[in-house]
């Protein structure tokens, strides 16, 4: 959840760290800080955003430093709880992402031994342990300290004296960026793209020592070599490029993202799938994800069942950990944009332990999920900076279309029709984006309400769930996604003229029943906004407002409908004046359970 950065080189570290921290802020943004290594260690940290921290700084000349943006877990957001944390002597500084699960016991023990703690964080025990074990070599002390730690961590440490950074990881992301006469450590490649695109991803158990000219990595006491990889993202992709918010930019990138994801996997008339098939003796496919990625899984379930004719179970990753039974030979597919979501990683590990072969659909090369899963299917969304997932969701849907087509048990002409429609999707989405003004108006209209329902049926039920998630996440309007048929089994009690309903229509076998549901809702005096395919002559007679959706085959309608709902949420939030890219209390990748 937190963002980490370290710099060692020949340039002033402070502006580089600040710049990288700004780019990392989407990982957590309730407090931040940095430590600079000169004759001693200078620490600057506070509650709030990086911009506020920067305002209090004057330019200094140190060439080594570490920085952190925080999403609070242990201890409220405050200057004291912000990282970096120091040992008692003020000679070792440390930033950390992860959770030390045995920190209370360690803290008690260290306190009895005379260590004085200043924060409420779990992190502080690590730096005191390093101090306890320090015998002249920081990396050795880090190894000894981490031997006492239970839980997850990515850390960067520095000490007074010789210029170097010591890094280590276990179940939290960390990489080393290689520059020319300078090196970096970061939780995230997007943070350092302005400086280098050559990175080394650390593995669990790795401890690295970084100087400006050299890196060495050891695991279990033995030196190891790790491959240098090129980050497949450009600097421009990680910038706003004139858009007011990253979210709007990322929504507008979607035609290209669909194209890129298709291009990567759909050559000539035959889709290329990873080296697995759902044929043969597979009893079921298990889909695992959280939040928006879980909604993509629900669309995927529908597609795989319909096209590949295979039984599919979609589970919230955080809940799968409480289930123990699988029916027969199962392929498990984890869906995670970041590849770092703790619940999804744990669910993938559990699926493996139950004997499943595993695949991950992810956006991040080298992410933790790709190390756990047997296979990786990369979506080509580029860096997604806004906390609200948009383009990654659409790319995940495209991945499911491709997989379902690769494994489809349908006749050739149906397959070709669907592939032809898939190729048209970027244009359909572009058409919708070109007409976004009407959606913007409706978003502003919705911004007046405190509560709303999103309803859908069939393959558009997950779209309703996702529309509601997007709305609440950034506009803070309470929004509930609901199966259209379920509304009258309880939620109807909440319908009134002040609780609008957004109904997702599609020209499939759900259409007539959805119209009936809309009539039932209208009878309660509730305003209804419908998403309807262009050319629909029925629905606008029933509802208060219509968002016209460029027509596509119903099976592909989730893509265009979802983009419309992203815009609806965006403009509602914008009208309300909220910090769209960094909604309160959230973080981009949730690396704690
Ligand atoms: C949605 O807008 C959120 N950012 C969130 O629900 C997200 O999809 C979820 O935390 C899972 O993230 P992942 O795809 O990186 O695993």
What are the defining features of this structure?
593 residues; alpha/beta; eight-stranded antiparallel β-sheet; seven-stranded antiparallel β-sheet; 17 helices; 27 strands; globular; binds 2-deoxy-2-amino glucitol-6-phosphate
Descriptive overview:
Helix content is 34%, strand content 24%. It is of the alpha/beta class. The radius of gyration is 25 Å and the shape is globular.
- In percent, how much strand structure appears in the residues? 15-25%
Residue ranges: pLDDT <50 for 5 or more in a row? Answer: 268-276
For the CA atoms, what is the radius of gyration? 25 Å
Trace the largest sheet across and list its strands.
Answer: 3-2-4-1-10-9-11-15
**Hetero compounds:** 2-deoxy-2-amino glucitol-6-phosphate
Largest beta-sheet details: 8 strands, antiparallel
* Helical amount: 25-40%
What is the arithmetic mean of pLDDT? 92
Task: Give the total of beta strands.
Answer: 27
Distance between the termini: 11 Å
Structural class: alpha/beta
Q: How does the overall form come out from the CA principal axes?
A: globular
Task: List the total number of helices.
Answer: 17
Give the SSE layout.
Blueprint (H helix, E strand, L loop, with lengths): L2 E6 L4 H12 L6 E7 L3 E7 L2 H6 L8 E7 L14 E2 L5 E9 L2 H10 L11 H10 L4 H9 L4 E9 L5 E6 L4 E4 L4 E4 L11 E4 L4 E5 L4 E5 L2 E3 L4 E2 L15 H7 L1 H12 E2 L2 E2 L12 E6 L1 H18 L2 E6 H4 L9 E7 L5 H12 L3 E6 L5 H5 L2 E4 L12 H16 L5 H23 L1 H11 L4 E6 L4 H15 L2 E6 L17 E4 L6 H12 L5 E6 L11 E5 L7 H20 L17
Parallel strand pairs: 18-19, 18-20, 20-21, 21-22, 23-24, 23-25, 25-26, 26-27
Antiparallel strand pairs: 1-4, 1-10, 2-3, 2-4, 5-6, 6-7, 7-8, 8-12, 9-10, 9-11, 11-15, 12-13, 13-14, 16-17
The protein binds 2-deoxy-2-amino glucitol-6-phosphate.
The site of 2-deoxy-2-amino glucitol-6-phosphate (AGP) has 15 residues, from helix 8.
